Task: inverse folding
């Protein structure tokens, strides 16, 4: 299978990667040299930075969100066991289950575990599809985002969380990608080391502003357009 994939990949004259993690993997596994890493263009309006967001969403509960889909319900269960002590504080927990799939037994196990620690009034299984506006609203109201996937996934949610000042606990490729950009994020393994108070402690305002500035610059459409113009210029010169 690896040989077949390598043959298919090497049929392409150029491959553009979204992040350097993909670039490194293509070289490591398929000996394919990537010349261009260009992030996807995005709606910059959703990334407008506003200090008022933080003051508004910090009132009341510390909202914890587990992402990013039902395929990894096992990860959710593992993460809940790591952060169960936070349920003794004024926190709520939401698990994103509105796409992907898991067995009914695993769903019920997750539901039972969440209710056991947080109760029915503070534990939520998000099973409904959200409009894009409501999705951004969910992320804006989030204080802590946890994603245990080792592979690259849910980057849009992570980027948005970082702009909104959310404290992120990540793993694998997702962690490496945003750390390489210079963002202040935490590893999933930190959940086993940090105290409850340290886990739920928000980022400082300076840290939030730093993360937001980095992501907005990385996803700046003028910058991305210039990168695509350079891409077309280079490949035309190669002809």
Result:
């Amino acid at each position: 299978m690896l040989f077949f994939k390598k043959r298919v990949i090497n049929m392409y004259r150029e491959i553009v990667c979204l992040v350097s993690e993909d670039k490194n993997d293509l070289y490591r596994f398929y000996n394919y040299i990537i010349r261009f890493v260009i992030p996807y263009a995005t709606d910059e309006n959703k990334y407008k930075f506003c200090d008022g967001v933080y003051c508004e969403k910090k009132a009341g509960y510390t909202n914890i969100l587990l992402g990013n889909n039902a395929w990894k319900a096992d990860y959710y269960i593992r993460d809940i066991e790591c952060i169960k002590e936070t349920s003794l504080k004024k926190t709520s927990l939401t698990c994103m289950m509105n796409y992907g799939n898991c067995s009914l037994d695993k769903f019920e196990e997750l539901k039972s575990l969440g209710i056991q620690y947080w109760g029915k009034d503070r534990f939520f299984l998000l099973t409904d599809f959200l409009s894009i506006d409501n999705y951004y609203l969910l992320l804006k109201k989030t204080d802590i985002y946890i994603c245990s996937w080792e592979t690259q996934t849910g980057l849009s949610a992570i980027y948005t969380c970082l702009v909104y000042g959310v404290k992120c606990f990540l793993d694998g490729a997702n962690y490496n990608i945003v750390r390489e950009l210079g963002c202040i994020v935490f590893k999933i393994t930190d959940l086993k080391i940090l105290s409850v108070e340290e886990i739920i402690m928000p980022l400082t305002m300076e840290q939030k502003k730093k993360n937001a500035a980095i992501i907005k610059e990385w996803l700046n459409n003028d910058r991305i357009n210039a990168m695509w113009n350079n891409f077309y210029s280079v490949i035309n010169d190669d002809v």
In short: The longest strand covers residues 62-67. The CA atoms of residues 139 and 161 lie 6 Å apart. Residues 221-238 form the longest helix (18 residues). The chain has a mean pLDDT of 88.
